[in-house]
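ok trying this again, last paste got cut off
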Amino acid sequence: MHQRRRVTKETEIYASLELRGEGRAKIDTGVGFFDHMLESLAKHSHVDLEVICKGDLHVDAHHTVEDVGIVLGELFNDEVYPVENMERFGNAVVVMDEASVSCDIDLSNRPYLHCELPVSGKIGEFDAELAEEFFRAFAFSMRITMHLIYNRGRNGHHIVEAAFKSLAVALRRATSIDERAGIPSTKGVL
């Protein structure tokens, strides 16, 4: 299990991660919908996750969401690199009612994000545009290549939740143990 603490003038975050967990989550960011998304991320990636964040929510949730993305990306990075005996690539398509979102990831140690999520407005008290901020912070801090693609849907809640769940399943698949993989790169290192 890895732990991280991050303290800035905008947020104070404590988080822990067990990569080969049971999908348990203890989440308290002060942003209800975001807590729900992180619980879904833990459940469907089968990681045990704890996140406690005190952020400047009197401003808005931007710093909270982005900084939690940074910390979670760093925790996953701690658990995964150097990549050895793992699948390396993972993908998933998750549907929620009318919504469908695809996520493809590579544990490349080269951060990149391509994100197509046409969401705006509020989901509860959550600014839907913050979903992309989380995914960017997460991908760059974990140092993965991630493509999140909207396939269809109208309901913002469903679209964003399908995105978080598709990332979770893609992570579970990419980090699954494969003893034959060794270092899964022709370079000999990731």
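PB: full thing came through this time. The CA atoms of residues 120 and 128 lie 5 Å apart.
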